Amino acid sequence: MIGSNSTSLPKSWRDNLTRYLLSTSECGCGEKSFPPRSICGSCRSKSTLRASANYMKDAELVAGSQHYDYLGNLIAPSFVNINGGTDIIIPTRITDAGPEEIRICMELEPTFRRLGETSQGAIEYGTIFRPKKNYKRFEKRDPENKCGKAGITAYGVSIPTYRIKMSEIAEALGKPAGSLEKGIGFDEKSVPAFDQDSLTMAVDAARNARVYGGMEGEKISAIYVGSESPPYAVKPTAATVAAAIEALPSVRATDTQFACSAAANMIPDALAAVTDSNNTMVIGTDNSQAAEGDALDYTVGAGAGALIFGKGDAIAIPVGRSFSHTSDIPDFWRRDGAQYPEHGGRFTGEPAYFEHVISAGKNLMKELEISPDDIDYAVLHQPTGKFPFAAAEELDIDRKKLEHGFIAKFTGNTYSACTLIGLASVLDHAKPEEKILQIAYGSGATAIGILWETTEAIKEKSGIKVEDMLREKKYVDYHTYRRSKNGH
Amino acid sequence: LSLQSNIKRVEAMKKPIAAIVGAGRTRFGEFFKREYMSLALEAGQKALDSANMQTKELGAIYGGFFLPEITEYQGLSSSSFAEEMDINIPITRVEAACASGGLALYNGCLAIQSGRFDKVLVGGVEKLTNTDATSSLSTAMSSYERLYNFTFPDLYASMAGRHMHDYGTKREHLAMVAVKNHKHAKGNEHAQFRNPITIDTVINSAPVAKPLTLLDCSPISDGAAAIVLVKPELAKDYENAVLITGSDYATGSVGLYSRKTAPTAPLEEKFTSIRVTKLASEEALKMSGITLKDIDIAEVHDCFTIEEILAMEDIGLCEKGKGGFVVEDSFDEKSSHIVYKTDYGEKIFNCGGGLKADGHPVSATGVRQAVECYEQLSGISCHPVDRRLGKRPDYALIHNIGGSGAAGVVHILEVK
């Protein structure tokens, strides 16, 4: 746990953008400063200063230290040289790294994390660094064929580095090996680092979507962040995301909540808000909690997915409208002030998940006059590894069509992010003119079905592939998982 | 560049600035039962008594006190001494974190040099056991360093790691500094730690900030120290007087990351060299008219073992990067004292154990260093180094650093 650093609220607030964007200034005389200055520290000029944001630049470790906090977290305060021609040393902290991994000259990549708290308890966030991962990053190119319709123009995902195996959880809880893993249908699940939460993952996903999608921050006019595990009961995540992706100030930023469909429910609204010059964004993010030993303790993962909607160069466009099926059912809830959710066990199945998902899917196929054979990929909400496949069977959709989007097998249920990450993984693989059925489910309850059709522009991939992101991981034990999930 | 233009170009004066005629200190350690005032008064009274001076003779008092606002929740701490001593003379509290004591001495020198005062008391006090010392001390780093969870051990560990990377300095070199300083504290009745330690105990002590372990770090201490300064013309009236012939103070940025290196130096050099040490020691030596060769003993700011090595290099006693090897070549497990074989002859560093073993009640340290050198040079020390040095030391250099190298004060002392 990273504690209070005694900063006052006004001071912390004044430094927000410096922490988020790693802003530096460079003067015409060559003097560089972090934080940025309004008067050059060397030549005292005011007019030749140029500020720049460095939050997507890699860095190199110049010097650093390592200590452990009382909970056993490795804290590695460090000095890094920002690459990309900036050539300036800034203080930072290395995260997601083991003690032997950290060495002078190592390559680092930026990530958004929780840094500490003000003296009054407001969370301080900022961009820090972790060991550079080996995945390819595809920069967006200008596609030749523009369809001119509103659709998904870019997407981004954030999945924590850490994982826990189902078998480790079972063993820690004293269950016989293999007794539960099979029923759950996941191999392992993602675990946030102690300095990650739903907000930090939302920012990392949004940055991947925006930056690799080649989108200017100020061209995003609306941001919807759907989550059931925001770090604040009251204070919007979307405002921090907007600041962290340079979308301030004219953006409409909104947090939404509807269990796991909080984000997907906003896709029709985000699409409707797209104009020729306005782009919109939907982010699903969750680091949901589970009581120790509960069924959810096995299934609940952590991750975020972000979609940018716009016109002109959409890679996937919706076919017709979306189809919802909603009822008032208490299958899963968390009472105000409660730390962990409650759920109805098997009651969450037939009258809840299956009733809604299947109804939405059947209605969609009927209204859009398509058959299961017209669907190339399906991404159904994944509370367990069994549910989506069982629902697909009812919908006559071949289980193979679910596999590219079945990311929960590696991350567990990422709640609001689940079908967004699944959709991202499918888009990584899809070719032009393929149809993708997305059905999100939110307890309480609703299912929303959207049929996407890919365009020619999907040939121009951008961003980081989900399968690459899943590859580099580190395993933790049950004790560490419980602790870091709670942000300690 | 801007820093360089600020350097004072004082003509070589070769004329004493002031004379130290009395000194006193408390033991250093964790004194949960004592107030800062009782520590300060004990040191101050001892200093006045040793100079055979009355309080009413004093023209002014300069006191280093780093954290009264935090450890005592006391502003205007200067006047709290007026209250206790029943005086109305100017009392000035100075603050430069761990260099507060050195800065008080520097200000005392300025007061004498100005001609305004004939006799001043210089003191330093700290009461670290009142609060969480680590977070209190971290006020002396940049807010951005605090934000990313740096502690002071982390800052010096960053320097140690980079020094080891660039120059091949060994882990054992750092440990030898601690072993040596514990040896030197053995005869020092005021020291916090007088127990002998070995290289292995240092390396195997609790990890603090990689690569530094607990015994690389100076301790959390309470304590006070004081000296009496008079104008040089009055030195002859006192039984034990030592002259101050050089006094300089240099500053740099609070943040280590933002600190300027010398104009042509690579960016990374800020982690392996403390520039204020170079600037202040060059200037102080120039003022004194002596050379590095003349120095017999030095009190250097070994807040962490790496800093003693950096100080040796930055003062210029050996080539950059060779400090650790000087320590190794000079090391003798069996000897009671270690004499560093520098490029400018043999010197004893930290005769009473330095910050590591004598203790480090922050603002008391800079003044304690002056007490140590005054007593060694005037032959009244309880742990003289004469025998190991083969003579009474004639010249001493005092090096006191604030923060991670944001402030540096250097004084040169000379026998009367």
Mind explaining what this structure looks like?
The complex is a heterodimer of chains A (488) and B (416). By secondary structure, chain A is α+β, with helices and mostly antiparallel strands. Chain A has 14 helices and 25 strands. Chain A has helices at residues 9-14, 16-21, 166-172, 181-184, 198-212, 237-244, 267-272, 295-299, 349-367, 387-394, 408-411, 418-429, 466-471, 478-485, and strands at residues 4-7, 24-27, 32-33, 49-52, 59-64, 67-68, 74-82, 89-94, 107-118, 123-131, 151-158, 162-165, 188-191, 220-226, 252-256, 279-287, 302-310, 316-318, 323-326, 332-333, 342-343, 377-380, 435-442, 446-454, 474-475. In chain A, the strands form six sheets. In chain A, strands 1, 5, 6, 7, 8, 9 and 10 form a seven-stranded mixed beta sheet that branches. In chain A, a hairpin with a 5-residue loop joins β6 and β7 (74-82). Chain A is globular. Chain B has 416 residues and is an alpha/beta fold. Chain B is 37% helix and 19% strand. Chain B has an eleven-stranded mixed beta sheet, with helices on both faces. A two-stranded antiparallel sheet of chain B has the order 5-6. In chain B, α9 packs across α13. Chain A binds chain B through residues 2, 5-7, 11, 15, 19, 33-35, 41-42, 62-68, 75, 77-79, 81, 87, 89-93, 99, 104, 115-116, 124, 126, 128, and chain B through 1-2, 135, 142-151, 153-155, 157-159, 161-162, 165, 207-210, 212, 255-258, 267-268, 270-271.
